[in-house]
Amino acid sequence: MKVVTAPDKLGGLIDAVPKQLLLGGTWCDAASGATFDVVDPATGDRLASLADAGTVDARAALDAAIAAQDAWGRTAPEDRAAILHRAFDIMTARTDELAAVMTLEMGKPLGDARGEVAYAAKFFRWFAEEAVRISGTHRMAPSGRNHILTVREPVGPSLLITPWNFPLAMGTRKIGPAIAAGCTMILKPAAQTPLSTMTLGAILLEAGLPAGVLSILPTSNPGAVVEPLLRSGGIRKMSFTGSTAVGRLLLEQAADAVVRTSMELGGNAPFIVFDDADLEVAVTAAVDAKMRNMGEACTAANRMFVHETIVEPFVARFTERMAALPVGNGLAEGTAVGPLIDQAAIDKVQRLVDGAVADGATVRIGGSRLPGIGHFYPPTVLTDVSPASEINGTEIFGPVASIQSFRDEEDVLRRANDTEWGLVGYVITTDLARATRVSGRLQVGMVGLNTGVVSDVAAPFGGVKQSGLGREGGHLGIDEYLSYKYLSIPASAPVPIGGLS
Ligand code: NAP
User: Fold this and answer.
1) What span, in angstroms and rounded, lies between the C-alpha atoms of 365 and 378?
2) How many CB atoms are closer than 10 A to CB 247?
3) What is the whole-number distance in angstroms between the Cα of residue 163 and the centre of ligand 1?
4) How far, in Å, is the centroid of ligand 1 from the Cα of 165?
5) Beta partners for 402?
6) Among 56, 209, 296, 432, which has the minimal tally of Cβ within 10 Å of its Cβ?
7) Which residue of 38, 39, 160, 164 sits with most ligand 1 atoms within 8 Å of its CB, as the best mutation to test the pocket?
8) From the alpha carbon of 221, which atom of ligand 1 is closest?
9) What separation, in Å, do the N-terminal and C-terminal C-alpha atoms of the chain show?
10) Which residues contact 208 (CB under 8 A, 6 or more apart)?
11) What DSSP designation does 461 have?
12) What is the pTM of this model?
């Protein structure tokens, strides 16, 4: 395994990141004066202290969102689209800076971070294009007595909550459609990675987003900010991306005021390699699906099922590719595997690996955390993993591939669907009939067919079962921020059939 060392810290970049709350268009300290620290997972160094929002600040953000909603909702779609286009341009021009900030706070390699900036910016361009195509419908009532016109309106002040693993893209996937639809927003970023979001806030103001339309509330106490907002009656929409456990809690809190919700939750993706697969395609897809973001992705291949007749050649090639991935500080060019987010993540991964080994799994490569500073875990391949091991029943969220073999299609489908989650599944086969059959029977919201990557701004992203509600991105993404209003309009009186004779 190659280990890449850290270059000099890019301290100047962090100096330029706003450290205060964005409240109704103004940067300000928390009402309590409190701050909290953000640390670099590669070194443990403190990167910045940020204003720490509490309940009072949440109320102020809500007042701003409610005050701005009516006028913002009645702005011209082309004006909102223009703001999104400008934000896309600024993000694109500042890719390197945004990527470095993201790598510093989250750990992902610079190449991945640049890829995320591009992906994140494209949500703004996509929803700029959607903003000017919001459509309604017209039907003539069967009685002939009235027109039934449906128009779509912004749902209203929206609470957006994002996770740490994709600090920019999970934000723009919500902000883009909310702006396009004409909703005001309160954004609560993850406490471990707020710096990317704060920079994004400054970019949106520079792009011309009016004061009051967006507030950003970094906080070390999410419950103190989110729960009062959800129960206030002023929030009309919550869009949450994060774990299923927190998602369940927020659904309960949202029930009080009947808040409309979009929930992008956890996954437990099956990755199935059939005996007719092209082995190179299978290995490349497996590395992509497992190692993107160091395995810290909801779409990560969590359970790999390989047909028993090809499991050995697959494992040999896959292990070779995993072993060649350089581990190190994400800021160093050439790094493919950065640090995990924190000590708890390392501890969880180690517990899952140790449990699998105790249940009979074989470690082909890796298997124990790297010594020294930072939360580094090496690419790890486990084979002969028992279906009963804990590692198959929870998100690994680390660079560990858990491989089982299977004999027949029916059996692998049963095992793949034997989970409460249903975000994505991967199917590797050259048989079209099998591809169609298996894709149809997988209980998931998305299928990667002979590919390990499904994310695309133009595609509806989301899951079934306990992986979530609603879709983000694609043509469906804006629907989550719009409500239907039906207008009944009298028509000229219909002529009775009898009146024709
Ligand atoms: P998480 O712990 O559920 O946190 C997500 C967000 O919720 C963070 O902003 C977090 O704030 C906040 N939060 C936590 N507890 C809260 C509470 N009691 N009240 C209100 N807000 C609360 O998830 P994570 O660890 O950040 O992210 C990883 C998870 O997200 C994984 O399960 C992954 O699969 C999922 N994910 C899903 C998708 C998708 O599109 N389906 C995409 C990416 C990630 P703090 O940061 O302060 O804890």
Assistant:
1) 8
2) 22
3) 4
4) 9
5) 382
6) 432
7) 164
8) 47
9) 91
10) 82, 83, 86
11) B
12) 0.97
